[in-house]
Amino acid sequence: MNPSLYGISVWVLPAIIAITFHEAAHAYVAWRYGDDTALQLGRVSFNPLKHIDPVGTILLPGMLLLSGSPFLFGYAKPVPVNFRNLQPLRAGMIMVALAGPATNIALALAAALAFHLLPMIPPEGARWVASNLVNAFSFNILLAVFNMLPIPPLDGSRIAVGLFPGLLARPFARLEPYGMLILIGILILLPLAGSQFGLNLNLVSGLLRATTDSLQQLLLLLTGNA
């Protein structure tokens, strides 16, 4: 697969905005709940350079895209949060984790509402704007749903830690240092292993697809696009 310059251009802007707003939201809510770690590091910012990881956000997804990989994978710089500073602790942890996915849903809603403005765009630019809006809509929903999975180090796992009783929360929280390995195992290695035995072990992708499709239909209905 050789993506065209046009194809790349209509994905880069939506992806950068989605990731930047997601991480900035985490940083801002952490500051509002009493932890200024991210603030001191300049992460309460809409400057993409503060949040983009050169390898995880650009190099890795780019290599997978150019190589024709059947999946895309990447990550941004994690927002540093000292959870001990959050007041109250459990509510703060939940709200900080929710901030990123909630912001992505808000961006998806904004993109869906902006569909109604397309007739006002000059014809020579309408196709490019429409492609950006469609990609922003779908990418933000996927990013929100993916991050709500209760798998360390995703936001859903931190929400789970905030909701679980201490007896369950502590051992679950201790899995976070191994989160990237767990993600790679569940998303990549397990499906590959299953395919060798004729088994469909790509359960997470199926769940993501069903959830994102349902959420897309709901948001399109709410914004008058269905």
* Main sheet record: none
End-to-end Cα distance: 32 Å
The pLDDT mean sits at 87
Number of strands: 0
Rg, Å, rounded: 19 Å
Strand portion: under 5%
User: In DSSP terms, counting alpha (H) and pi (I) runs of 4 or more, how many helices?
Assistant: 9
Which structural class best describes the helix and strand composition? mainly alpha
Order of helices and strands: HHHHHHHHH
Low-confidence stretches: none
Bulk shape: globular
Domain count = 1
Proportion in helices: 55-70%
How would you portray this structure in words?
It is a single chain. With 226 residues, this protein is mostly helical. The chain has one domain (5-222). Helix content is 67%, strand content 0%. The chain has helices at 5-32, 37-40, 54-66, 89-114, 123-147, 155-163, 166-173, 179-196, 203-222. Helix 1 (5-32) packs across helix 5 and helix 5 (123-147) crosses helix 9. The protein is globular. The two termini are 32 Å apart. The model has no long low-confidence stretch (mean pLDDT 87).
